């Protein structure tokens, strides 16, 4: 849902008053030079001239968008880029909507760099930048940890280095990667995350260097944007079928900005196939749907709402995962979900409260 300028000017007295936990807020570098204090000098020129851009770019970002930087038209601080000014974010989001906690998911995916040593240095720099410029500046902020995700050992090392700072509440991975997330190259990452009680957040985007659909490159941004759910489905299948959760029974995975209406029929299909093909995966000892319901969470933005409210209630019943739904606005993007309009009006008050704060409080251990 796009929030118009007129809507952002709604008086605070008319807005929702109960506290919210926003599980998908995006912060960005105003300038790559902001990372210089956290990088060895050898990497300064690499960052400026030779690296894949860290401005959140992935192959789909080359498609023309409805709004520059995929941002709301009113989300631009004076003279700055969207998501780069904490004071502006505080006024427009945190204070305006009574946000109790906001989880920052910066989309500067260091792990997509081809030069692995630089990816390691860049991930550390981004995390240090987040601490100094964001977490230390506002007590309501929490952040996702950036790791060089294509190198399991180094990703695990960065998790161990930062896990003592409990303001990092999850490990962030892009949904488009070089291999499915069930592969063993990622298991050291999962081991470290589980040991430190940190969920894995899989977010819209990424730059695998491969076609972004299973059959090649799409023609339009519309296809890229709407078709991202394909990548989320592939990772869910891989994580379940490769037995990741048999090895890491406490690991939790959050699907961020990928929708969720597709998850119920995917569980049905996996369960049906497992009953016929389970000899091939003897490590998978439970119905895939049981594994998914125990280990996966998802955010509300975007919600694929059917044309009749009854159908949405049926979807929730089919999923049977009401305790796994996390509220998110996707600020400052063009499809931002206003907290007063994001959830269907016919939800029971207890379920609305669960989605708006209680589920996130439990997952991220927020006091």
Structural overview:
This protein has 367 residues and is of the alpha/beta class. The chain is 35% helix and 11% strand. It has 13 helices and 8 strands. Strands 1-2-3-4-5-6-7-8 form an 8-stranded parallel β-sheet. The longest helix has 18 residues, at 116-133. The protein is globular. It starts with a helix and ends with a helix. The relative contact order is 0.14.
Name a few traits of the molecule:
367 residues; single chain; 8 strands; alpha/beta; 13 helices
Give the distance, in angstroms, between the N- and C-terminal Cα atoms. 30 Å
Helix content class:
25-40%
Strand order of the largest sheet: 1-2-3-4-5-6-7-8
Coarse shape? globular
Q: What's the average pLDDT? A: 90
Instruction: Please provide the count of β strands.
Output: 8
Rg over alpha carbons:
20 Å
**SSE ordering:** HEHHEHEHEHEHHHEHHEHEH
SS-based class: alpha/beta
């Amino acid at each position: 849902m796009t929030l118009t300028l007129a809507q952002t000017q709604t008086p605070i007295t008319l807005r929702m008053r109960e506290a919210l936990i926003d599980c998908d807020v995006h912060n960005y570098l105003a300038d790559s030079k902001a990372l210089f204090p956290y990088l060895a000098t050898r990497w300064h020129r690499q960052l400026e001239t030779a690296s894949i851009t860290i401005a959140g770019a992935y192959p789909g970002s080359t498609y023309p968008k409805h709004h520059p930087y995929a941002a709301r038209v009113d989300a631009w601080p004076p003279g700055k880029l969207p998501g780069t000014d904490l004071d502006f974010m505080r006024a427009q989001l945190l204070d305006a909507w009574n946000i109790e906690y906001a989880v920052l998911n910066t989309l500067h995916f260091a792990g997509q760099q081809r030069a692995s040593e630089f990816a390691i240095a860049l991930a550390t720099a981004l995390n240090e930048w987040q601490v100094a410029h964001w977490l230390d500046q506002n007590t309501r902020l929490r952040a996702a940890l950036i790791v060089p995700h294509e190198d399991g050992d180094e990703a695990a090392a960065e998790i161990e280095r930062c896990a003592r700072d409990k303001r990092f509440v999850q490990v962030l991975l892009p949904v488009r990667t070089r291999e499915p997330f069930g592969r063993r190259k990622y298991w050291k990452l999962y081991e470290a995350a589980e040991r430190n009680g940190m969920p894995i957040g899989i977010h819209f985007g990424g730059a695998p260097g491969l076609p972004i659909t299973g059959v090649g490159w799409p023609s339009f941004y519309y296809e890229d944007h709407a078709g991202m759910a394909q990548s989320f489905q592939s990772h869910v299948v891989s994580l379940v079928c490769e037995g990741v959760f048999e090895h890491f029974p406490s690991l939790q995975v959050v699907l961020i900005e990928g929708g969720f209406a597709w998850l119920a029929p995917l569980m049905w299909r996996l369960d049906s196939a497992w009953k016929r093909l389970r000899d091939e995966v003897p490590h998978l000892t439970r119905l895939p749907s049981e594994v998914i319901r125990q280990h996966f969470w998802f955010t509300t933005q975007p919600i694929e709402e059917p044309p009749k409210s009854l159908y949405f209630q049926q979807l929730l019943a089919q999923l049977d995962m009401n305790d796994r739904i996390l509220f998110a606005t996707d600020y400052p993007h063009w499809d931002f979900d206003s907290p007063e309009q994001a959830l269907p009006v016919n939800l029971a008050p207890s379920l609305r409260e669960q989605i708006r704060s209680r589920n996130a409080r439990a997952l991220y251990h927020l006091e």
